[in-house]
Amino acid sequence: MTHPQVICLGEVLWDYLADQVGKSQAEVSSWTAYLGGAPANVACGLVKLSTPAALISCVGQDPDGMRILEQLQQLGVEIGGIQQSAQATTRRVYVTRIPTDNPGTELVYERQFVGFGPLDALEFADRQLQAERLPEELFAGAKYLVLGTLGLAAPVTAKAMQRAIELARQHGLGIVIDVNWRPIFWPHPEAAIAQIRDFIQQADILKLSLEEAELFFQTTDPAVIQAGFGSHSSASSIQGAVITMGEQGCRYVLAEQAGQLSALPVQTVDTTGAGDGFLAGLLHQLCLLGEQTELSLDVAMGLISFASAVGALVTTKPGAIAGQPTASEVHLFLRQC
Known about the structure:
Blueprint: E1 6-9, E2 13-18, E3 31-36, H1 38-48, E4 53-60, H2 63-75, E5 78-85, E6 92-99, E7 109-115, E8 144-147, H3 155-170, E9 174-178, H4 189-199, E10 205-209, H5 210-217, H6 222-227, E11 240-244, E12 250-254, E13 257-261, H7 274-289, H8 297-314, H9 327-336
Parallel strand pairs: 1-4, 1-8, 2-6, 4-5, 8-9, 9-10, 10-11
Antiparallel strand pairs: 2-3, 6-7, 11-12, 12-13
């Protein structure tokens, strides 16, 4: 087992993207499978940037699960923390791509999550992550733990997530939470909002989309959002909140440095995984900072610019992982912008 700098915990799955772009689910005649799941996307993006990363998750003992393990291993992600369930199958998510209604701009296709095939949202292996099987040795020497919130919909996985946070605090890791709100994963989405609000109080760094910021905090000001969480934050970790806004760019506050950055220009093919790429880029840069917890305005802007470049480049190819860049590709892209 390798020693990662970043541990990502949460779902890994197959995104089945519609081959017929712009069609409704009923009109789609074929789908193509892409490795996905936000925590898995972040782990893969980090490894591509040369930051060692591990994934903690649970897959089925089925062909889909075996293919995931093989691909992650080929990509260089540490998979020693991935459990396998003999009772549940590996998750598939079906995604259509619908053109956005933005007159005067280039045509961009947005994702729509349309279901899990013949199975219910509750019937997948990622709901069976066992707290007692988390490998504590992964946490020794790591710098950050990254979690989404989808696992909170399953009591067993939610317990494992809380255990991971306990281990992270014991070993001095910063806690990064990406809200990743997907109502389709929750049996009772309305009740989920309060549960997620409570969970994100444990974050050192919180990442949200524009819609998530409005839903959970009723504001799109990162400084106001940061003031609304973090009562358990470690004084040794950089604190912050980042709001990604797609073609509008992002807003951020990191170690008290606040700002806004416009979106970087690329020829967008597929927006899947753009936010995950952004987070991978940010974490890569934070790991390079080492133990530094105070940032100048220029350094904070540099971190966000690098993260934004990673997110932008991810959109240039289909799926969340195919377009993930190397660090040298990011630096070249930023020089050309």
